[in-house]
Amino acid sequence: MAKKLAFMALALVGALSVWWLARGKQEQAPQPTTLAEASPAPTLAIQAGRELRSVESEPSRVPTTAKESSTAQERAEPYGTLSVELMWWDGTPAAGLPLCFYPWAERQPHQAFQQRVTDAEGRVRVERLHAGAVLVEVERMWMDGRFQLQVERGTEREERITLARNSDIVGRVRDRDGAHVAGAQLWVKQDLLSRGHAAERSQADGSFRVRSVPEGFGLLASADGAGSSETATWDAFETLDPNTRWVELRLRGESAEPKGACAISAARRWPVRGSRCAAPTTWTGARCGIGPTCWS
After folding, report:
1. Cβ neighbourhood burial of 204 (10 Å; 0-12, 13-18, 19+)
2. Is 189 exposed, middle or buried (0-12, 13-18, 19+ CB in 10 A)?
3. For residue 173, what are the CA distances in angstroms to 11, 66, 170, 246, 252?
4. Residue ranges of the domains in the chain?
5. What fold, for 73-162?
6. Which helix (H) or strand (E) holds 75?
7. What is the DSSP secondary structure assignment for residue 57, as one 8-state letter?
8. Does the pLDDT of residue 266 top 60, yes or no?
9. Which residues, listed in sequence order, are joined to residue 180 by a DSSP beta bridge?
């Protein structure tokens, strides 16, 4: 009897195990879905409206790396900037002074030179000069006006220069009739045959003062419609004190009637041949050559 009960209990346990396993597989099997459940209901798409924004509000489209590479490229170029302040020996600004900059690192420095004129504070700034030695020249001062400076790649360098103390030439410009000439251009010349270098202009009363003229140099004046003066040599200057000399410059020409065709200006000179004007020769800028002019 006991053996029969054990057999029945074992059969019951086996039946329960089969039922439990079958129930687990049924729960794990995917539930079938109907077509209605599988297909979502169609929805009406809403068209997005256009948003208008100003160009200024748009963020920069240039990548940061591109900007950085551009800046790096500029720094890699062999150029720099030079700022120069020129002072006279007494500390006053050397205003209105023409300068030439010759970058010696260029293959042809005299072709790559730059010209500037100092402002009221005696300052001048030149960008994009080849790095290396640069000759700064005040042409009208000859050797006393030559300075060797350095330009550094990708940077701006500032220099202050005090010009040598030579003689100041003061005086007055008159026309051929003795009247004062305002605005006459003064030219500094190394000798009678050399070209003139523009300096100051005469005041309303014809007076002038040309600062720091090297010993041995001469002076000449010219004015529109009045021709030019003769070149006053160093020996013709009257000594007022050890650093100041005086001279009066008399313009020799005058503007003729239109039929005379002798127009005179500071930038145009008409050589004289006998009593008639020959073919015109034009000179411009600070390198203007001063020669005999047409007068009656």
Report:
1. exposed
2. buried
3. 143, 61, 10, 12, 11
4. 73-162, 167-287
5. Immunoglobulin-like (2.60.40)
6. helix 64-76
7. G
8. no
9. 174
Residues 6+ apart with CB under 8 A from 180: 172, 173, 174, 202, 204, 205, 206
**3-state class (DSSP) for residue 251:** coil
Q: What is the dihedral of CA 198, 200, 204, 205, to 10 degrees?
A: -100
Residue type, 122: G
Cut 0.85: pTM above it: no
Cβ neighbors of 283 (< 8 A, separation 6 or more) are 267, 268, 269, 289, 290
Q: How far apart are CA 86 and CA 166, in angstroms?
A: 15
Q: Which fold has domain 167-287?
A: Immunoglobulin-like (2.60.40)
Tokens of 69: 């590479």
Amino acid at the residue 142: W
Sheet with 146-151: list strands edge to edge. Answer: 114-117, 98-103, 132-137, 146-151
Give the Cα separation of 264 and 48 in Å (integer). Answer: 76
Tell me if 73-162 shares its fold with 167-287.
yes
Pairing of β 114-117 and β 98-103: antiparallel
Task: Give one word for 121, left, alpha or beta, with left for phi > 0 and alpha for psi -120 to 50.
Answer: alpha
Confidence (pLDDT) at 253: 82
Can you tell me which residue has the tokens 């170029």?
77
Q: Encode pLDDT of 60-72 as tens digits.
A: 555 555 555 555 5
- Range ranked top by mean pLDDT from 110-119, 189-198, 246-255: 110-119
- Across 131-137, average pLDDT: 95
Q: What is the pLDDT of residues 190-234, one digit of tens each?
A: 988 888 999 999 999 999 999 999 999 999 999 998 899 999 999
